[in-house]
Structures are given as C-alpha cells and as structure tokens.
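Quick entry between incubations.
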Amino acid sequence: EAQVTQNPRYLITVTGKKLTVTCSQNMNHEYMSWYRQDPGLGLRQIYYSMNVEVTDKGDVPEGYKVSRKEKRNFPLILESPSPNQTSLYFCASSYFGEQYFGPGTRLTVT
Amino acid sequence: DAKTTQPTSMDCAEGRAANLPCNHSTISGNEYVYWYRQIHSQGPQYIIHGLKNNETNEMASLIITEDRKSSTLILPHATLRDTAVYYCIGYNFNKFYFGSGTKLNVKP
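Done. Structure below.
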C-alpha cells in the first residue's frame, strides 16, 4: 500500500530539547516536503526536497532543519524547540503536484 | 507565485452540486492549479489539477477560466462525507502555496 508514515504522531516536549520527527514514503517519490498547520493559517511549507541531498526552504523555515540522505526518508529536526513551534506537522511526498500526505504529528512545546 | 483567495466557508445541500470558487489572479503561465481537501485534521487529500483546460475525474470537475485568473471546483452530487476544508493551490514545480481554504458544510 502506498503510504507516507510519520513518527511520532503525538509529542509533548520542553523548550530547548532537540527532537526529530521522522517521515518515510514507499512510493519512490523524488519530491518530499514538510508543512505546519496552525489555526486560521492553513498549511505553510517549511522545507522541501527535490531529491537526495537537495533541499530548499519553504515559507517558514526558521527554527527547523531537514536532511535527505535517502530517497525514502525526510526527517524534520528542531534543534531548540520553542513554544511557537507548537503545531500540527505534515510530511508529504509527491509525483509532480499530486502529493500524498502523512497522518500528521501533533507537537506541543511547553 | 500563485497566491490564491477562497471564501472562508460555504454550505451545500446533500445531493446537490457544490461549486467552490478560487481566485488566483497572480498565477503565471506554467503554474498548475491543484485542489486538495482536508477532513478534520487528517492529511490533505489530492482531488484534481489543471493548467488551461477543464478537467474531470471520478471525484470532481475543475473549470479554469480562459484568462486563468480563477477556477471552480465542482462536486457534482455532494454527500455528507464531502464536508471538509477545500484548498486551491498554486504549484510551480517546487513550492506549494496553501491558503486557508474553504470550509464546505454539506447539510442533509
């Protein structure tokens, strides 16, 4: 079954404690992306990757890092999380513009 | 970059057609228009996309005006399960620009 998986699905952490949200896809897609969703703001793109070792900033990259060492994985790294990064995060992979989204990770930073 | 504008919410009676408009007046010639929907807080789901011509698939139809400044997503026979937030998105082969979308309420 074609799918995008994210882990963890829920995470509560404290300010400054580094964390990684993993994302994996099994469709051999070259393009992968991370979004955050906040009430009233829709989805905003954080980072995207066109292929292995090729990443670029989206609209809201501050406070986030990504890496793409393998085609199937695209982890999102928060080196020093802050409360304003409390949000619902989605990973997606796509063939051209048809994106497949993961189930989401709800992150709370206290 | 194609920034889009959509109404905040719309109502539709079950069984009737739902017509969801989107304004994308800044779209450039090579930018596709994509439509997605999101049910509750699930990951968004792809519906349909187009560049110039009208498109139809098993889920919906997409009507794009000749000047490409706006489009309309049509759900021909809305059901209660179509209640969701619908996003009209500009895509230029790198970045995706989601707006706040339209909350479609399908009522019995």
